[in-house]
Predict the 3D structure of the following.
Amino acid sequence: YASLIGKGARGSRLDQLVEWCGPNFDGCLLFDECHKAKNLVMKGSAEGTATGRAVLEIQRLLPQARVVYCSATGVSEPENLAYMERLGLWGPRTHYRDMYCAETGRTLNAFTVFSEALNVQGMGAMEMLASHLKQTGAFVCRTLSFEQCSFELMDAIMDKEAQAIYDRAAEFWIVLRELVEQGLDSDDHEPHNIYHALDANGKPVGMDI
């Protein structure tokens, strides 16, 4: 995906791919690890990431291409779906189309209308959406087979060296939490002053252990 937005003497990689495919390309565009484009639309931001825009653009430039979105990372927010236009969940001939908002005096694009509707309904709407996509064949979720798999519960016996390492790690996290809490309670939230706190001997507290 980094190369997709890269540019060289012959133009961007995106332009090269579109030129290589040709205007009548009807093959498959498979976006593996497609969650890397999930920030096309970001809350509180007027502009999403360049990667998200490139993934959306190549789909629009190759309108006859078949598209597969492949990822092992689930969608946690409706905004993460913005680059998946080919699902046909918003836009012309759907329930979610561009809509004029009299309250703000501006026109909301179809995806904004769609995502806001899901946000209002919460997690239940996201689950219903997943069920709808699966029922229509647009969503396939597979797991590895557990056939002939076996498992065994074992008690890990720690020797004295391993126990000492565990104890020191626990001590470190206790000190670290105290430092963070002190920093948050103080008026000075600069990271330099929070993480470089000194003890009575002038030694960084985080180095005491």
